[in-house]
Amino acid sequence: METIAPKPTSLILHGHFYQPPREDPLVDLIPKQPSAYPYSDWNERIYDDCYRANAFSRYLDPWGHIDSIVNNYEYLSFNFGPTLLTWIEKYHPFTYSKILEADKRSMLRLGHGNAIAQTYNHTILPLDTPEDALTQIIWGIEDFISRFNREPKGMWLSETAISPSVVSLLAQAGITYVILSPWQCKSIETEDGSWLDVQGDDQFYDRAFLLEGSDGSTISAFFYHGALASSISFGHMLRDADTMYTTLKSINKRDKPELLHTATDGEIYGHHEPFGDMALAALIHKVEEGSTFALTNYAAFLEKHPAVHKAILHNGEESKGTSWSCSHGVSRWYKDCGCHTGGQDGWNQKWRTPLRDAFTQLGGVIDTLFEQQIHKLFKKRVDPLELLRSYVSVLSHKESISTFISRWEQKSGVTVTQKHVLAQLLEGQKFKFFSFTSCGWFFSDVSGIEPKQNIHYAVRAMQLYQQFSQTPIKDPILEILFKAKSNLRQGGNGKSIALPFFEGNGGELEAAVYFIMNRQFAKKEDFTSEYGKFSLLACHSPHYRDYQCEIMCNNTLTPYCVSTIISTDPSLGYIATLTSQNQLTQEKHTKTLSSTHIPPRMLDQVFRWIERSLSQIADEEINRLAQTIRHYSYLAKRGSSAPPETLYVENMGTCLRALRSLFTSPVTLTWEEKKTSISYLLDFVQQRGGRKEKAIVSSIFNDEIEDISQSINDKGFSYERGSYLLEVLEVARTYKVDISITLAQEAMYPTISQFRADSHITPLTKDVLTKLQSVLNFAVKS
After folding, report:
1. Hey, what domains does the chain have and what are their CATH numbers?
2. What pLDDT is recorded for position 279?
3. Which one-letter DSSP state was computed for residue 182?
4. In the predicted model, is pLDDT for residue 31 greater than 70?
5. How far is C-alpha 474 from the geometric centre of its chain's CA atoms?
6. What SS3 class is residue 417?
7. Max alpha carbon distance in the chain (Å)?
8. Structure confidence by residue, pLDDT tens digits, 197-228
């Protein structure tokens, strides 16, 4: 009798990938965050640890060579916070494209994509007004559609926070399922129609249930395997893919479920658990090679196994709803419930209540003014909420505010004479929503970076809306914020945190400083006309150290004229007196800044300009310098007396300048000529250079490898690009330069994979690829 193989169990691992918006609302750039060193900020650090790593995760053979590079997103159910994905798209477009590609590939494999939507900027929906909660849902859906080119079926709720009213809003918006913690479920309907009270550790994860909203509408809910999620997040299961696979098999053998699934923060795969992305890639390989499980996603499973039985959720404290990270419901985001992260014994979180009360009151004021002004601008021919909800196309950088306004003018038949007013109203609404981002309440103290960020967003919303109010907006809000007391003596309170944000200008002076320094210190090819949300329209210098800049804020369509007088002081360095004039309101701001006031992130960029400017050396000069340094090196090594120390210092600086110029300047030297000069310079650094000098050499080579890799990503592999990459890598290896080959591996992997399977290749290209395969640590396959 023929034995029928058992049907594999559906397996879903979900990753919730999210970071709060971190941009300074004045300039729309993330400030430098020293705690993220050696990265400029935490977005960059977590990106490298996790978001990029999961798009290019290494699966190694037993000898430590790269067998394959896996796009984990092809096999992982996932959601990305829209604000985070907007940032990735802008600063890391290649990784962004791999995330979109993964969803398309999972669509081909399963009939449904792995990606699901997320509420826009991670507010706690049960605590939002119904109008704001629905806006968050609609913004999340529309952002998803614009990126993945399909409508989402599922949605990740911020902190999985839900209530019956939220269920109704989700159903109204067309969402069919959500993922929840098992501890949010109170009881489930059984096969015979009776009800069974459950605990979070009960085994009811193997199917979907129906949730009923406050209006009787329903959506489906998956309650993830709690113990498995805990083991992944806190039990270091990702340190060993074999252990994880064995655990999955034991759960499967014990429970015999149709579906085994769990959900965690996506950052556990590589950031919270170093190399967790590689453990995931190895697990994917084991699942794909075996017959016990079949990796799928929620939409694909739900299509074959629709929810039949109902589930009832806990009400949470004060019947406000539940979440996955507050045992009391959603109290963590509006009162001192005892849940917090960080802090010391004896601290309290009483500050949470006035912080939310202040923003709630501000939100009411802003919504009233918004409705009044939209009716005024569009002569009551436009629904203010409909207009606001379509603004997500601007938030997600899919169209400019000017295009957005033109579209609505055409739709309404009304010409908006004050386009900047409409732009400011919408920008203020954005910051109102951002002030409710959940991270502002999650941690231990109001003086933390997350509550401060939310307060800054709220202040910017007040500044933008004050012009529409006959009474001061900030005074009653500050009165409430005063009650939000820090646990630290030096931490102050919400009011003391907010007050400095009211000082000064709207960011145009910072942008002017950037543009002026760019014109002063950068080479012409490094001139730029963009700084965050500001554009430089014109820059004049009628007198040495005097500048006049015409600047546009692209988000609010506000033009500024900034005049600058620059002087120097031996103790303070540069001193700039800046006067900005709003060209629409004629409002002026004057500020005197010294070099010490330059934002660290901007200063880093200025030093890069100076570095590139100093490294611009003519072809014939490079050869001469390299030869001279070679002679110096030989004489210093073999001469009968030591050379002057000053000569060593000067030569080392010249050596590093020449080396950088060989890679960054548009020289006409052939590679062989450049290679000879590079060898002379590297000989000198290797013999006489210290740790700092060798670190500079490493950065020069890493920058060049990154540029070559980017060129291969953008233009595709060619014999010339591959040969040059190989030459640079071999020079670095010969002179023991500490380099990273990560980006080169990722750029070359598609070509190496094709090379392994393609025998029709020219001998020259085959030779280059064979060598690159070895140098980049790829496993050699016959």
Report:
1. 9-313 (3.20.110.20), 352-358+374-383+394-502 (no CATH), 508-598 (no CATH), 612-775 (no CATH)
2. 97
3. G
4. yes
5. 31
6. coil
7. 99
8. 999 888 899 999 999 999 999 999 999 999 99
